[in-house]
Design goal:
Oligomer: single chain
Order of helices and strands: HEEEEEEEEEEEHEHEHEHHEEEEEEEE
Distance between the termini: 96 Å
Radius of gyration: 26 Å
Largest sheet: 5 strands, antiparallel
Number of helices: 6
Strand content: 25-35%
Number of strands: 22
Shape: globular
Helix content: 10-25%
């Protein structure tokens, strides 16, 4: 009996050891990463999100997202790298160029101590057809919409370089902004918060939008400025063409101040996710999908995120440039001129 009891105990110890040996355990203080929701930003463009829950003892040398048409995507396949990281928290990236009518699988990833760590797998299925998209030099991708005889970007520009590769100066300091001259070139993010650019784009001075540093640099005709190749900054006349296609009379279109009836509502993104209530008259019938990115005034103060937006044109009146403004409490469109050293949003229009 004693001999049998010993054999049984040995067997139990072996089974227990085997179970422990097969169980995967993460090292203490290791990196922990999750793959969060995948959201549709606009047609054909997706926002991937992940979270670094715990950094661990090793430095994160790179992190990002990977995806594939089969399960368990890896870094060596389709992937975007976001660089090193030293803090926990949420990170995201806007990604496009997916095939239509296809199911994709995606994971967040990070590399620490030369070891790749992956979040859980998420999947999404693309629609059967896509509209035209355009990519800027920073690899930001914008969907577009055809309105009448024009093709417009559906998102605000967020590029930080010109198509020739030269950088646009980022100016955050309010006093530096206050000290600008008439043709100062600069861009900023609303309230100096870069993450906001994913949704609302960047804000540019007029010289930055035009890619000029003096009045003598202004050339007649279509001005590419900060826009991608094949696109240009809309003129005041091109804004009028859009407004009249949406129903505004030519007499109204040529006026200053608030004009028209419901044309602004036809351009505004619907609902209250971007716009504060009541978002008067918003139907987005045109597909322009305007969102309230606010602006920065000539003294360097940020204003009106969530309640209003202004867009530059390439046209001037004296030392001022024409803008268009949309508000949360109006369905009309505001037309007037603003100082060149203010910072407003940019929507590009396709060359004919």
């Amino acid at each position: 009996m004693n001999s049998l009891k010993v054999k049984i105990q040995i067997g139990l110890v072996f089974i227990l050891f085997s179970a422990i040996a097969c169980e995967r355990t993460e090292p203490e203080n290791s990196l922990v990463i999750t793959t969060d929701d995948i959201a549709v930003f606009s047609e054909g463009i997706y926002v991937f999100r992940g979270t670094i829950v715990s950094i661990g003892n090793e430095e994160i040398t790179d992190h990002g997202f990977c995806w594939s048409e089969s399960g368990n995507p890896v870094i060596e396949g389709s992937s975007i790298c976001l660089g090193s990281r030293s803090t926990t928290g949420i990170f995201s990236s806007t990604i496009a160029d997916f095939s239509a009518n296809t199911t994709y699988y995606a994971r967040a990833w990070a590399i620490a101590g030369s070891i790749p760590y992956y979040g859980e797998e998420r999947s999404f299925t693309t629609p059967e057809t896509y509209r035209l998209t355009v990519t800027d030099i920073n690899h930001n991708i914008y969907s577009t919409i055809e309105i009448g005889d024009q093709i417009w970007m559906v998102e605000n520009l967020e590029v930080t370089r010109y198509s020739d590769g030269s950088a646009i100066p980022l100016v955050e300091d309010r006093q530096a902004w206050y000290d600008f001259s008439l043709y100062s070139v600069a861009y900023c993010w609303w309230n100096n918060y870069p993450a906001i650019g994913t949704y609302y784009g960047a804000l540019y001075t007029w010289p930055a939008a035009m890619h000029i540093t003096a009045e003598n640099d202004i050339e007649p005709g279509k001005v590419q400025g900060v826009c991608p190749t094949g696109w240009h900054l809309p003129s005041d006349s091109e804004w009028k063409q859009l407004e009249m296609f949406l129903g505004m009379s030519s007499t109204e279109a040529n006026k200053d101040d608030w004009r028209g009836t419901d044309e602004g509502g036809k351009m505004k993104h619907i609902g209250s996710f971007y716009w504060e209530n009541p978002n008067t008259g918003a139907s987005n019938e045109s597909g322009f999908s305007a969102i309230p990115g606010g602006w920065r005034d000539g003294a360097g103060y940020f204003k009106n995120l969530g309640t209003a937006t202004r867009f530059w044109s390439s046209s001037t009146r004296g030392d001022y440039a024409w803008v268009r403004q949309l508000d949360y409490n109006s369905s009309k469109i505001y037309r007037d001129t603003k100082g060149l050293y203010e910072a407003h949003s940019v929507r590009c229009i396709k060359d004919e």
